[in-house]
Design brief:
Blueprint: H1 17-29, H2 36-46, H3 57-69, H4 75-83, H5 88-116
Helix pairs in contact: 2-5, 3-5
Length: 118
């Protein structure tokens, strides 16, 4: 897979793009207790893109917090979600999907910054 930069110059192919796609597919479409559509929406929201309204508000707020700074998540946050009917496995899946979405957007930004000097 070869891309071009903003000036139309050919860039070296990303040697990890297949692995990245496999990771995204595993998180969003693999087996889990959250529906794949919701996991895809969580990845999208955590990456700063629209989620299609598929995420309940309480979970959406949690996803936003994970995407911004996962270190602030506490047991009370998980308890709030389990009190709303999400089991711990669903909360874990939401954390993984949110972390993936946030990391993908950060990786895109790093790629952009590295290509500016070319």
């Amino acid at each position: 897979m070869t891309d071009r930069d903003r000036d139309g110059r050919q860039q070296a192919p990303d040697p990890y793009w297949l692995e990245r796609l496999a990771l995204i597919a595993a998180v969003t479409d693999g087996r889990g207790c959250l529906p794949p559509e919701m996991r895809r929406a969580i990845v999208s929201r955590a990456g700063g893109r629209p989620d299609g309204g598929l995420i309940p508000e309480t979970l959406a707020q949690f996803v936003d917090r994970v995407a911004r700074d996962a270190t602030v998540i506490a047991d009370d946050d998980v308890s709030a979600l389990t009190g709303q009917g999400f089991d711990e496995e669903a909360v874990f899946e939401a954390v993984v999907a949110a972390a993936l979405g946030a990391s993908l957007v950060r990786l895109e930004r790093v790629d952009e910054l590295l290509s500016v000097g070319d």
